Amino acid sequence: MTFRRIYELYKGRHLLIDCQGVPRDVCLNDQLILESMAKAATRAGATVISQVRYHFGHNSPPGFTAMVLLDESHCSAHCYADLGLMALDIFTCGRTNPSDILKYILEDVDLGQVTTVQMPRFTVPVTPVTSTSSPHLDAPLSGIADHGGSLELIEE
Predict the structure, then answer these.
(1) In the chain, how many domains are there?
(2) Judgement on whether residues 81 and 114 belong to the same structural domain of the protein
(3) Domain hosting residue 130, numbered range
(4) What pLDDT, in 10s, does the model give residues 16-66?
(5) What is the CATH number of the domain that holds 112?
């Protein structure tokens, strides 16, 4: 009997987060969001490289944009305070899970009603791995994270 695992691998995960009904005090506090993103990324195992923020409202509607650069990629936020909307973007590669970063942000900050979409980045088709000994074909591939697969049983 032969077992074959068919994989779909990718280099990173991109989490797109839309927040509605964000409290106005949060929408105006760019420092809070910047610190929360950096702290959450660190807790999730990422390495923070740099942080930047900009508060709008001088010649435009109030809000902010904030960015935390990571060795693993980035976390960003853009806020429309008058509308109570915030868009977050968390992209990671390697072993850092963007959903963990979001979970830690939500422990610190009320972001209202949150919806998320996760996208794999740079999907790589991989030749099926075949074994005659075991259905547990979980050998890691260097440089590419294993994020799925299906097991197929082949009668020979």
Answers:
(1) 2
(2) yes
(3) 2-8+123-154
(4) 999 999 999 999 999 999 999 999 999 999 999 999 999 998 888 999 999
(5) 3.60.90.10
Q: Which residue has the tokens 């890691």?
A: 140
**DSSP assignment letter at 127:** P
Coil vs helix vs strand at 111: coil
Q: What are the phi and psi torsion angles at 27 (to 5°)?
A: -65, -20
Choose the catalytic residue: 55, 76, 78, 147: 78
Annotated active-site residue 14? The verdict is no
In this prediction, residues 99-117 reach a mean pLDDT of 97
Nearest CA to 41 out of 87, 73, 65 is that of 73
Same-domain check for residues 72 and 146? no
86 vs 136 pLDDT, higher one: 86
Q: Which residue has the higher pLDDT, 78 or 149?
A: 78
> 19 with 56, same domain?
yes
pTM for the predicted model, two decimal places: 0.74
Active site annotation includes 93: yes
73 catalytic per annotation: yes
pLDDT tens-digit map of 55-68: 998 888 999 999 99
